[in-house]
Structures
1.
Amino acid sequence: MSRLFLARHGETDWNARGKLQGHTDIPLNDSGRAQARALAARLEQQQISSVTTSDLIRAGETGAIVARELGVASVHTDHELRERRFGVFEGLTREECASRYPEAWRAWVEQTAPPEGAEPRELAIPRLTRALTRALDRAAGAPSLVVSHGGVMRLWLIETTGAPVPLIGNAAVYVVERVDGTFHVTLWGA
């Protein structure tokens, strides 16, 4: 059995304002840096051997803080861990999305259907699966941390568990285990 901890990055100013970030490269704010330090403290007893993050700065910064706090030298970047593109929603708040694109917003909320210019779930889910598989293979059975993004994580979790998944908070953590090639997921600390 292989195990990793899949975490969403810490808070950014856009998160605090409710803006959808997508591929827009926004750094952590002070709250997000504190969340990353708190994440490291939560993981302290887990013997994390490596950290892998998306190539967006908010995930990279979260992972770097955790690695530094835990003394983990093995840090990797994987562009397939990046958030999905949000198309016309990117940079807008949820209220702005609902006001400007009511039909597309309703489809997004009810079915996670991508708006114009967004990455479809059919591409996002396999992309995250490939990245998580690489991280698990690299860790060779040792616990590792993967830092990604709420939107793509939520799609993957819905697909993997077959159950509804609420919006994922900053620095929330899921335990992902692979047994005989099958992923099993639980919310850590729940």
2.
Amino acid sequence: MLVCVIFLIGFDKPLKIGDKPPEFLLYDLNDKLVSLYQSKGKVVVLYFWADGCCKDRTLLADEDFYKKYKEKGLVILAINSGQPKKVVEKFARERNLPYLVLLDLRFSATKQYGVTALPMIFVLDREGTIRNRVLGQVEFAYLEKVLDPLL
């Protein structure tokens, strides 16, 4: 597991396994509002990130990995914490990210979830309960191990 940490100061304590996460409403790269509620009934990976932690890596999952799990009911919401839209768009375009990228320009969701360092991953089951939380970048094999029992 690769850990690249940027500490964020003044945020709440992170949510823990077993918690029900708060709702959020964020814009995607097409200026469409997206809420966590829209993914109800799916397994959801919330990936809080900034490009400083992922410059030379594909972000979280490649197209083949995502397609395999999307067909089983997975949604990945990659929530960029605080970077300008132009920076995030360039990063997503260069890596051809296959999943939804959301902009948390004012750190609202980042604060709600108590994210104190990046990247941070929350895995939610189909009932919307946090089943896993990881600080740092993960390998595909680890993510498969976490997702398989939930899908």
3.
Amino acid sequence: MTTRKTVRKAVQAKPRSKKARATAAKTPVQEALEITWVLKGHLKNAQISYLRVGGMLQRVRDRNLFAALGHATLEDYAEQRLRLGRTSLYKYLQVYEWVAEFHPEWLQPKPKGFIPDLSDVADLIWIEKELKRKDLTAQARTELEALRAKALDGRLKKSDLDSWQRRGGRVADGLKSFLSKVRLLRKRGSALTDMPAEAISHFDAAIEIIRNAMAVRKAER
């Protein structure tokens, strides 16, 4: 039996919106998948945005458009007009120029595939520069290629790169560190009154040999 109170409640109840009914009908898995799909789109747009920023900054620089607005330098324009510091300014430009040379597919109107986040691009740039070295061993090159594949797929962890570097992956940096130690020993030795002059000359010769080796490696890259 229907009471007046029941009828009044039914009349006063507002029908749910179409969106509310659709949301209520979804399972947690369906809702999670939908949100994940939207998030992926937003994240990709954010990654594309830093490339667009770099491209526009390059245009302002190359066409001297900053001067048209009364700025003497690009840095002054970025600081005053965009509140963009010098470090960030050149990071955007460096990344854009590197992408234009090595990954132009990322600059297409509708780029496909994964684009690394701005904070991760620096590691990828470093890896690809290392791969150009002519003094890499076969094993080091294989390991770097694996790290590059991870970076391009968005799976590279900071610990992966740190571990590779700690294991001596960077020969040039190893020489630089060793050179610093030899120089320190030379300095301490020369402070000793009974240090043979011949020993100091050997230190000087070793320092010169290491410096030359580093210069050759740098020229070959």
4.
Amino acid sequence: MWKIFKRLAFNSSYLFRPRWDTGIPVPELIRFIDGKAPGNAIDIGCGSGTNLLYLAQQKWKVTGIDFAPLAIKAARRKLKPYTTTLLVADATKLCELHLPGPYDLALDLGCFHSLSNIDREDYVKGLEKWVTRDGVFMVYAFQPSSNDGRGISKEEMIAYFKNEFVLINYEQGQGRPSAWFYFQRI
């Protein structure tokens, strides 16, 4: 039942511009791909497609999934001039999806940390299926704070990915308890 309410809340937020949708690609992504040859990328929880648009402009082949149909509709408008794959899909069902992978880069800005433990395990299995060997998974996640305890710690994050990924970089987030994790598929 909680998933249904969550999905409705996120979807309805795209009736307007959600507060998290700045319309500007994240600087961490810009820095990461600078100087790299274009590849195949997926944005899990892509929202309106801002980061996908940046990647497509840099000649990357892009796929975006989001469980909010209005987010995917906005992404389709934004990415209209580019050949893309955009799907309304559940991030915990990556193993079941027919995607144009495998992917050299997987990106997640705020999806993974909002999942239950069981859903996180399913999500990780999907990444293990779709991310290439030596491919990178960049994930931005809230970390627990003394105020509410929600989020995911660095230790927990590493534990989820320990079977198929290694942490290659970690950057503390700005303005709130959060972090960027960069995992490479082994």
